[in-house]
Each structure stands twice: as C-alpha cells, then as structure tokens.
Amino acid sequence: MCTCITDFLTYETTKSVVVKSWTIGIINRVVQLLIITYFVGWVFLNEKAYQVRDTAIESSVMTKVKGFGIYNNRVMDVLLIYVVLVKIVHKLNNCPGWNLEFTCTQDSNCSKYVNKPGDYGILTGRCVSFNTTMKMCEIKGWCPAEIDTIKTTPMMEVENFTIFIKNSIRFPMFNYTKGNFLPTISSDYIKKCNFDMVNNTYCPIFKVGDVVRYAQQNFTKLADKGGIIGIKIGWLCDLDKSDDCNPSYSFTRLDAMSQKNAVSPGYNFRFAKYYKMENGTDYRTLVKAYAIRFDVLVNGNAGKFNMIPTLINMVAAFTSVGVGTVLCDIILLNFLKGAEQYKAKKFEEVKRTTFLLVLYNNTVYKMYIIYI
Amino acid sequence: MCTCITDFLTYETTKSVVVKSWTIGIINRVVQLLIITYFVGWVFLNEKAYQVRDTAIESSVMTKVKGFGIYNNRVMDVLLIYVVLVKIVHKLNNCPGWNLEFTCTQDSNCSKYVNKPGDYGILTGRCVSFNTTMKMCEIKGWCPAEIDTIKTTPMMEVENFTIFIKNSIRFPMFNYTKGNFLPTISSDYIKKCNFDMVNNTYCPIFKVGDVVRYAQQNFTKLADKGGIIGIKIGWLCDLDKSDDCNPSYSFTRLDAMSQKNAVSPGYNFRFAKYYKMENGTDYRTLVKAYAIRFDVLVNGNAGKFNMIPTLINMVAAFTSVGVGTVLCDIILLNFLKGAEQYKAKKFEEVKRTTFLLVLYNNTVYKMYIIYI
Amino acid sequence: MCTCITDFLTYETTKSVVVKSWTIGIINRVVQLLIITYFVGWVFLNEKAYQVRDTAIESSVMTKVKGFGIYNNRVMDVLLIYVVLVKIVHKLNNCPGWNLEFTCTQDSNCSKYVNKPGDYGILTGRCVSFNTTMKMCEIKGWCPAEIDTIKTTPMMEVENFTIFIKNSIRFPMFNYTKGNFLPTISSDYIKKCNFDMVNNTYCPIFKVGDVVRYAQQNFTKLADKGGIIGIKIGWLCDLDKSDDCNPSYSFTRLDAMSQKNAVSPGYNFRFAKYYKMENGTDYRTLVKAYAIRFDVLVNGNAGKFNMIPTLINMVAAFTSVGVGTVLCDIILLNFLKGAEQYKAKKFEEVKRTTFLLVLYNNTVYKMYIIYI
Predict the structure, then answer these.
(1) Which sites does the entry annotate for glycosylation (chains A, B, C) (predicted)?
(2) Contacts of A59 in chain C (CB under 8 A)
(3) What is the mean pLDDT of chain B?
C-alpha cells in the first residue's frame, strides 16, 4: 500500500546538460528575447490578447434624405434616391403587341400563342394592324407598350441633397451603448453642419455629392446610369481607455461590376401605380427610373481587460520561450567548437552494460562500466 | 560581475538516451510521418493554412422580376411575387360586427365593449341586426367584414416568370472585385439564356419554376399556400490561382416549418389601398394575397498566400512532430524487448551518494559511487 | 547503406531524474489534477469541445401585426407600427416660401436663389407677400409649406396590438430544421394564447405592450416620440440531446441614443401620396408620423459530437498536463529540502573529461573520470 502511494507520488524531471559557452549562451538569449518581444509587442499590445472581445454588435440605423424632389422619403437602412426617366400612362385594353417576335400576317400565325403570357399581356390569338406596314398579334394588357429609348435627364440637383444617418450601437457583453453623434449637440448645429472626413466626423449630415466623391466615383457618370454606394460605419472600441469608441466612416461603390459591363450598366427599376377611373377603366402609370442606392453597413467589436485570456496568453508565452532550444541545439551539436564533446555529453547510447560489485568498508557498491 | 554574465549566458539542453532498436525506430518514424502527412495534407493543402483569409465580403444585390401580371416590381434583395387571393372593397361606416364573440341580444351586452378596439373597428356599444336570426355589437370601421374562405386560384403562370440577379462582391483586404456574370456578355445573350445548374452557371437569368425545383419543392404545393425560398450565392475564392473565384448557387426552402404545421401553412399577407371618393367617403380595397418570397443570401471568403500564417503553421508543425515520443516512450518502456534496460537507462533515481577522492598522478579525482 | 538505415531508425528519449519525495510528488499530482479538471470541466463539459459547431444558421422570419388602425400591414422582417402625427394636403403651385432665411423686401433679394432647390420647391426669384407684415421669396412647389408644431396624439391603443412571429431555422451542416412554435398547435390555441417570458414561451403571439415592457421601456414615453425595439431570437442547440433546441427571446431598445439627445429624440418619418385631380392639378398628402419599429434579429449555433475535435482536444489536454513541471521544477530546485542534491543530479556540466583505459579479463574497458 505504502509502495503504491510512493510510486504514485514520484516526480520525474528531465536531466539537463549545462553548457557554459558564451557563443551559444548569447544565441539562446537573443532567440528568447525575440520570442518575448513578439509576444509582448504583437500578441499583447497590438492584438490586445489581454482583452475579451465582443463581436456581436447590435446596431440600429435610421436615415432621412432631405432635398426638393424627393418622391419616397422612407426611413430604412437602404435609401433610394431616384429620378424618373420616363413616365407612361397605360390603359388595360386590347391592342397590338410590341415585341418583334409577334409579327404576323393573319390570325393563324397568332393562334399558337393564345392565352400565353407575353411581356405586357396575354395574347388573344388575333392578328391586328400595328401600323400601315406591319401587323402584330393582339395582346390584352397594358396598352400602348413601353418604349425604352427616351433620353434621361440626369439628376444633377441630387448632388446637394443631404442624408441624415442616426446609428445607435450596443455591445451586449459589456452593456455599452454609443451613437454616431454626441448627445450634447444642438438643433442649430445639426441644421448647419456638414460631415467632413478630415475636420468634422461628428456631424451626421452627409451631402450626397460628398459621399459619392469619397467613394471615388464621378457623380455625373453615376447619376447617368445609377449605382449602389456603401456607407460603412466601423466601430473598433477599446473599453479600457476612456474615450476610445468612435465611428470611422468609409465609402465604397458596391456594384463594381456595373462599371465593367454594358448589359446591366447601373441600377434601374420600374414600378407602376394603378388607378381606376370613374367609368371603371383600369389605368396605370409605368415609371422607369434610375437610382442611386445607399446601403448603410455597420460592423465592429469591443474589447475589455479580462483575467482569463490574459492568463492563457501568458502561459502560451512562457511555454513558447522554450521553442528556441530547437535552433540552439542544432547550432550546439553541429557548428560550435567542441560540438563533438557536447554531442557525447548530450546523448547516451544504450549498450550492453556490466557492473562490478565492489566490497569496500563492509558495504557492497555497484560500479557501472561502459563498453567501448 | 563576470560570473553574473556567465551565469546569464549558460545554456541548458536536455540529456537524451539514444536507442538503436529497429522496432522502436520504425514506430517512431511512422508516427512522425503520420503527423507530417496530417500537417501537409490537411492543414496546409486542404485548409490552406499558408493563406491569410478575408471573410468580410462586401456584397450588393440587384434583382428584377419579369413576367406579365407583376404588380410590384421593386428592386430589393427580397423579391415578392404574389397572387391576389381575394380583393374586398370596404367602406368606413357603422355596421354589425363579424366576430362571433360579439353576438348580443340588447345594447347592454355591448356597452362593456364601448370604444374598445376590435379586429375591424371600434365598438359603438349598440346591438344591431346581423341577419334575420342573429344580432351583433355594432362596429365603426371598415364594413363589411372580411371573409376568409374564398378558394384561391394558384399562380400557375408564375412558373415562367424570370428573375434577373446581379451580384457584385468585393474583398476589401485584397481590393478584389467580381460579379456573377462576365463583363463580356452581350444583350442578346442575356435576353435568351437561362440558368442551369449543370451546363450554364454564368447566366444570371433564373426561371421561377427552375428555382423552386432546385430547392426540391413542388411548385403547385408551394404556389397554393406560399412560401420562402432562399437563393444562396457562395463565393469561395483562392486568389493564388488565376481563375478560381466563381459563384456557386444553392437553393433551399427557408420556412421549412410551414410544411409541417396546419396553423400557418405558408406565406400570406394583407394590404389595403385607401381612396377618398368625390362625396368625401373613405373607401379601402383590402387584398389578401399568397406570395412566394425569394431571399438572396450572399456569403464567402477569399484567401491569398501570406508569410505570417505560413511561418506560424510551419512552427506548429515542427513542434507537433515531437508529440509522437509520448506513444513511443510507452512502447519503449513497457512492451519492447529489453524494456527493463531502457527503463534503467532513462530514469536515474536520486539516492544518497558518496564519492571517493582518488589521488592519481598528483591530481585529485572525484569518483561517484551509487548505492545499490 | 545499413548504417544509414540504422542511423535513420535511431530513437531519442529524454533522460529523466526520478525524485521520490512526498512533498514534490503531492504538489505535482495536485497541479496535474487542476489541469485535468480545467480540461474536463471547462473545455469539454462547459465549452463542449467534443462537438463540431455549425454557426451558419439559415433563418427566415415572417411577421404579422393585428389591431385596428393598422395602415400598412406589410410582412417583412422589420415591422413598422406608426401613428399619423399630422396630415397636410399640398397643391403643386407657386406660393410664398416658408423658411425664415427666405424673407425679402423686393425681387432683387430673391434673384440670387433663382432655380436653386429649397426645402419644398425651386425658388422662382420673385418676392411675394407671406402675410400682412412679411414678404417671402416665392417657391414653385408643394404649397402651403409644412408646419411642424402640431401636438401629437400618442398611439395608446397600439399597446394592445399583437405581433405574430413565425421563425424557421435550419443548420445546413446537420440538415436540422426547427421552428419557434410546435407543429402540433391548433388554430384555436394560436387565436387565444399570448407569449409570456416565464410561463409560455411557445406561443408566437406577442402583445406590443408586453414587448415594450420586456425591453424595459415605458410605453407612453416610447409612443410619444417613437423608437426602435429589437426582438432577438437566439438558438443555442445541442443536437446530442433529444430536445435541446429551443428559441430564447430577449428584447432590447436598439436606438439607445434616442433617449439621451434632444435633437433626434425618436423615430419619425414622412411620406407623401400623390394624386392627380380631374382638372389635371397635382396634389399630394404629406404625412409625418412617429413610429415604433420592431427589428427581428435571429442568431444561433448548433453542436453535435464529432471524433475530430474530440481527438484534437484530448491530445491538447494530455500535452498540457506536462506544463505543471515548470512550477514543480522551480520548487524542487530552490525550496525543497535537499534542493542542492537535486540540482546536482539534474544538471550536468560539460567539463574537460578524461577516461582511463582499464584492462580486465582480457577486455578493455573505458572508465570516465570527472574533474572536480
């Protein structure tokens, strides 16, 4: 029993060979210093490994656009500023189709299309005159058909519109809340101020022209075909310092592929408003518009000192300091003066051994002898 | 002083026992080979540990739906294709309520509800005739009340509608942009092509019927009650290879629970349009519609070779190679032939020791003797 | 050749010094026990390191709001319940401007503003009478101009509105789907039940007043200026247990900064509906409304047993058990009784050595002697 406990309580420590050589000693200490510098400088100070980090940022964004000619001033994360390209009034009726694939000479050409959906209506199966020279299959739908080739009037005055962004964030791990403008600002300040990347990052009013410029886009080209601009609000907060939680804005064009291809060169859409007149006829106004769309994207994380990651990284640092011995051993056993002697000292071969029993002073001693 | 420096510059290396046994040697090298194979094969090649990875993908999505009968062709990330189930015209007026809990026989039954909101109006407190046999508490609201039991006409022609998806992504760490169709495609190609999972993944035009089929849904059942389909665009890019950044599409039904329960079996909603007639009366058209909603979800990451993760993982690999000695030591000291001898060689017990001083050739030598 | 193979197949194991001391033995085993307890208790049981984790949750949310006076019952992830603050009818016409910065005495004061956009129209350059005492620059736009100072009627009855949330989630790695209410619930139950944080978390019907109260907000104050409430649905699933995948709801006010500042104290927006009258004049109804907006935020992850993370963490555990020797060595070599002897045993200095060649029994033996 006692032997069991003694066996359980034995402690093994590795045997070491001590080398008193200035060369290898200096190399060893230099390598250890590099490792410690890496941990202190990079891991602890730069990567802030002594902090616990909250990446689950909660964010709410409220936006307003102000400027004359705003049609739909909705308050969502995605703003749409659009200009009407063409507005056409349609009447729900029977009329000749428009698509060149529906040309015909007589009703039998159209009968195969009966009740199949086309772009603007369901085909009736009859062939009717489109103009003096051409006949088309008749559709029951919104007449006349849409025409795509009216020149746009770019939305120049949009450049002076202003966007108000109110972003409120919270880090739930620390119950810390902040907003993108100071609670102390006054109504007058808000009415007059303008966001500036260099001088004034605390004003939440952005001029559309400025935002487009910060995203390195030419406003005229962007307004011509439309596009999507991203307003990124990044929050990198260090809660150990008293005032180190501020938003940093960056602006980028999100639909970069629009600039490279001719098929879908920008951002446009259609919508229709439907009316019923007194006599019961259905009308609709079809609007095709180009738009600049602004997506507000919020991300961020916050860190605060915590004992657990600090301890874990300190243990990792101390453990890593010993990694240098791999390099030092290679130098010691191969390149240093007296390497052979060190090698002999470090490595013991297991060979056949004998021992002599020697009687001395009435005690028996065991003397180990190594074969050559 | 000099002793201090010498002490600081000592170097300790562990003493090793060298075993020249083919058995344990082969086991050792096999274990090391397995560890190296794991690192090279899995960590470096499969997991691409030599690359730095950017997971903060920036994405913009623009969608269009084309097909006759599209009521609201909005251009958002979430498309709604709906079909009208029932359209009811209401007039703002006083009329009998509808909900069976508001049955009454006289005004006093209704007086407790006065000015409390019901489903379709505020109760006036009076009890009026609903039909020849029943009386209900009167509401001031939108009359007549909504009726829920009209059979739907499923939206069969929706199967042929087409969805155009333009997705532009950017990896900010590498300033790399790409889109889901090639910039060289022509207008004609776009007008005719159709997305196909096998043959044609570069066409951004998707037929609704195809999308529903790829999501393993039956179109008739889905159209009957509505549902939500997710179109997932995944970007896994390896920027070290010249053409390895392409979107991979997958389609799934997001509201799986709709299929399993009877209470809320799909996706439907109501909206109302409000009118004022010439005589000043308020009217509304209440529309209840079923819809198929398409959510476009974009995710992805990109990797590119970088020296720092490569070095860190190489150091981890080299350090891990030594882990095999744990297993080899167990075999060496317990199962190998001659295990006792190895054990004796490996472990030195600390026992009482004496030394003999021996005079030889005018120099004193210290000879250590170990007790049995 | 054979020597090469033999050299390649040598195995090195570190030499160890065995200390049979109860003190250091107990300290060693206690430290090892602490390390094992940390791994078993924290890493394996608490952090579930034996599981592979899927964080890419797919979620779809469908919401409905019910209650009298709902104007726009859209079915999106973001609900807007708003109350109309003021409704003004405008006519597109020429009229005096409203903004005090456009006061004037004669046309020349206004000529500098010609064709520049103001808040409600483009200035014509003429100076016209605003009232008996004041003249303003004329605008061509929506007249009369908006007035901001009408008292609101808070939306008290909104407190009893109900929100129905249907959330369906899927973990693609395990192809596991779940919803926030049981598929077995009946229509009657849904019509009557009400969500309760304590007693009834399986009813998907939420009273607006309850949600606001759970978010620790005062309904009257919130309704007065509007605000944004977050409904967070968290899914932490352990798929090794049979019924451990349930949603946990939390409610929070997302626009905390609204409460602290006077400039933008809540959540309000404007929209306009446009009409054309029979005589061709354009009219619009401008509505300014305060709203409570509800954002539904879904997140979560699921874990399931997997051999790979189990093995990796077991290897890490075993490797870490040896870290305790750093502390034990410090105690052994500095503080324990007999420390000097242990130090002498553990460290071997490399010094000049000589050996004696001894002839015994016709075999030559090498006897190493260490200098003092």
Answers:
(1) 160
(2) 254
(3) 80
What string of DSSP letters covers B186-201?
A: -HHHHHH---BTTTBT
Question: Which band of pLDDT confidence, cut at 50, 70 and 90, is reported for residue C150?
Answer: very low
Residues 178-237, chain A: which have Cβ within 8 Å of C?
Answer: 178-187, 189-190
- From the list B14, B117, B364, the residue facing C160 with the nearest CB is B117
Q: Cβ of B2 under 8 Å from any chain A Cβ?
A: no
Per-residue pLDDT tens over the stretch A63-73: 887 776 544 43
- Give me the residue label for tokens 């790979």: C308
How many Cβ atoms are within 10 Å of C208's Cβ, its own excluded? 24
A17-21, C122-126, C242-246: least confidently modelled range: C122-126
Question: Which C residues in the span 255-314 are in contact with B, Cβ-Cβ below 8 Å?
Answer: none
Nearest-angstrom CA–CA distance, A268 and A291: 6
Do B73 and A269 contact (CB within 8 A), yes or no? yes
Check the annotation: does C304 bind a ligand.
no
Q: Both tokens of residue B133?
A: 């046999």
Q: Write out the two tokens for C255.
A: 């626009």
Q: Which residues of A touch B371 (CB under 8 A)?
A: 363, 365-366
- Sign of dihedral through CA atoms C121, C124, C127, C132? negative
CA distance linking residue A9 with residue B123, whole number of Å: 85
Q: Residue A211: is its pLDDT beyond 70?
A: yes
pLDDT band at B151 (very low <50, low <70, confident <90, very high): very low
Interface size A-B, in CB pairs within 8 Å, comes to 166
Query: What is d(CA A90, CA A88) in angstroms, rounded to the nearest whole number?
Result: 6
For residue B256, the chain C residue with the least C-alpha distance is C168
- The rounded distance, in Å, linking the Cα atoms of C301 and C89 is 51
Full-model pTM: 0.78
Percent of chain A with pLDDT over 90: 23
Across the range C306-335, mean pLDDT stands at 86
Distance of alpha carbon A67 from alpha carbon A292, whole angstroms: 14
pLDDT at B86 over 90: no
Question: Would an 8 Å CB–CB cutoff place C160 in contact with chain B?
Answer: yes
Q: How far is C313 from chain A (nearest CA, A)?
A: 16
Residue type, A35: I
Beta strands A16-19 and C227-238, pairing class: unpaired
In whole angstroms, give the CA distance from residue A140 to residue A117: 10
pLDDT higher at C250 or A21: C250
**Cβ pair B350:C20 closer than 8 A:** yes
Q: Is B313 annotated for ligand binding?
A: no
Residue C75, chain B, CB below 8 Å: the answer is: yes
Residue B268 is assigned to a ligand binding site: yes
Chain C touched by B123 (CB under 8 Å):
no
Tell if the CB–CB gap between B258 and C15 is shorter than 8 Å.
Answer: no
With cut-offs at 50, 70 and 90, classify the pLDDT of residue A341.
Answer: confident
Percentage of residues in chain C with pLDDT exceeding 70?
78
Using a CB-CB distance cutoff of 8 angstroms, which residues of chain A are in contact with residue C336?
none
State the Cα–Cα distance between residues C123 and B365, nearest whole angstrom: 112
Looking at residues B186-215, what average pLDDT do you find? 89
Mutate to test the interface with C, among A3, A8, A13 (most CBs of C within 10 A): A13
What confidence score (pLDDT) does residue C237 get? Answer: 95
Could you give the CA distance from residue C371 to residue B355 in angstroms, rounded to a whole number?
12
Half-sphere exposure of residue A5: CA atoms within 13 angstroms, side-chain side: 6
CB-based contact, B73 to chain A, within 8 Å = yes
HEC secondary structure over A92-125: EEEEECCCHHHECCCHHHHHCCCCCECCCEEEEE
Give pLDDT, residue A72. Answer: 41
Which one of A120-124, A354-358, B312-316 scores highest in mean pLDDT?
B312-316
